[in-house]
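[SOLVED] Need 3D model of a two-part complex

Original post:
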Amino acid sequence: MTRAGITRYRGDKHRNEMNRIDELFARLRRANEKALMPFVTAGDPDLAFSAEVIRELAARGASLCEVGIPYSDPIADGPVIQASYTRALDNHVKLAQILETLAGVAPQVEMPVVTMVSYAIAYRHGLAQYVEDTQRAGALGAIVPDLPVDEAADLSKLCSAANFSLIQLVTPTTPRDRALRIAESSTGFLYYVSVTGITGERSELPASLIDNVGWLREQTDLPICIGFGISTPEHVRQLAPVADGLIVGSAIVRRIANAVDTPRQEVLHDVGAYVEQLVDALRTA
Amino acid sequence: MPDPATTSVPDSAGRFGPFGGRFVPETLTRALDELSNEYEKARTDAAFAAELDELLRNYVGRPSPLYHARRLSQQCGGAQIYLKREDLNHTGAHKINNTLGQALLTVRMGKKRVIAETGAGQHGVATATACARFGLECIVYMGEEDIRRQQPNVYSMKLLGAEVRPVTTGSRTLRDAINDAMRDWMASVETTHYILGSVVGPHPFPRIVRDFQAVIGRETIEQSRQQLGRLPESVVACVGGGSNAAGMFYPFVDHTGVELIGVEAGGRSDQPGDHASPLSYGAPGVLHGSFSYVMQDEDGQTCDVHSVSAGLDYPGVGPEHSYWKDTGRVRYTSCRDDEALAAFATLARTEGILPALESSHAVARAMELAGQKKPDEAIVVCLSGRGDKDAAEIARLTSRSNSAG
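Solution:
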């Protein structure tokens, strides 16, 4: 067992070449900048709109986009993202159509795209097939929120071979030695979950968050991005100094939900303006 | 052919052959590890065993009788049917065997708050009961549809001091109740224990629940030897998540001469959406943290399922059942809603016993099997619960079908 602080873990040690996610964070670090990383649910309320939102996010300065593949039983998600998955599935969105839409938009934007997918879906599709098909559609990696490091060996191997990032999560309940193990096996970046709980906007974030992320940064060269609960420019300014990127999900999905009964151009503008506000907060942090 | 089934499962990663495991958000990992560790310590602690034993004897009323249903056997015209009377336990079902064990673990872990999911309400009542007994706060998640069809149990839970939280997402049944309980646990994991009610979910739940329920099978073996002078030829149990069946079957696994039969909910028909029989019609996949047979569409989305009985209305099944299916140790079949209702009526009238609708599925298949066997053969049915909770719903279904006819 390597002791913390003596050997620095390198998240990219299994890689032979950098992919565009690695290049993004290398570039941001050189420029002393941070990434704003929005999450959108594919197919909410339909795939044509999701494609428009992804283009808008890229145009407004988002650095990386997480595209959520709707799932029927998402236990890590709060009411806002659950409801978006339900809307998409009620409209019978299928994985094949999501990949088709992704292929039409991901290669056109500079912003890297990764999928956020339940292991139930990736497994049913076939793990190798999932990596191959999403990569062909332009995705550069995957976040599988219900696949802990102990169960990730098979997918990890496939991702490494394809130079496809498998972004893994560390949470406030993760013991430190385990966090190091996760940092060692994660690629692309490390997803630090800010709170013990499900996704959703929070007014306050835990006081220990900055210290915990700060500790982890000293142990690994892998970029660390913080997600869950982040929704205000205030949060962004508070967390930017310790993170390489900040992930915003429910606050964006809640705005997209308005597309059901609001003109789409208005919703698109609202989402875009919101993201731009956060990007600005990040630049001045 | 796969290797024959063994009782030395699961392994340390919670695998029953290829099935089981732990597919949950990282947030829950530490609590699951803590539960595994505490259970390992408790398992080898004589004081823990003694306390649980005393509770099972004097609080639950164990051992539950093995009853020779002579009039039912006569009517079937073949083998002798014996009922393992889990319906006579305190709270009226096998669920209490597990909730008392897990409540003791909760106390050992120093946690004061308990959450649970329930379908038929039997696990909810058994959890509320154990929490009252140990002074623990208790919150039970229950689908709105199940609250409607199992009202008596909802009242009981409230009387026992539990809070019943209606679940309004998805199909508003057991599967959605588990989702909401898991979400609660994601935020409360440091102070709360989740008393999962079946042999499903992430490791170590399938193992812990099986072990606490295995008292059913152990007693059945002992009682069969006393009453029959041998083991029965066949053992039949209903399978939703599969906890009464796992508890009954596990001690019999090495007795390879005994035929084991699991009965899933056949619902209205064998068409998708009309039944809850993942072992008969599903495929291996992931649901609620475990790799097991499940009803999913081609994308991996969980399918809606149907059963007249709330406790079997679940698209997944415990991983050890998947293991027993693939090793061939247990034969799985299904029983339709109308067959279960008919068996309910027959048992009520021939033996004066109202079985739970869940257990009625096993009774129906046992009656059929008895007719094909000789009078000197014996079939044990796990009568997992009593049917008082179902009386109103059966009356409603019966009056509807009468007025429709």
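Edit: Residues 264-283 of chain A form the longest helix (20 residues).
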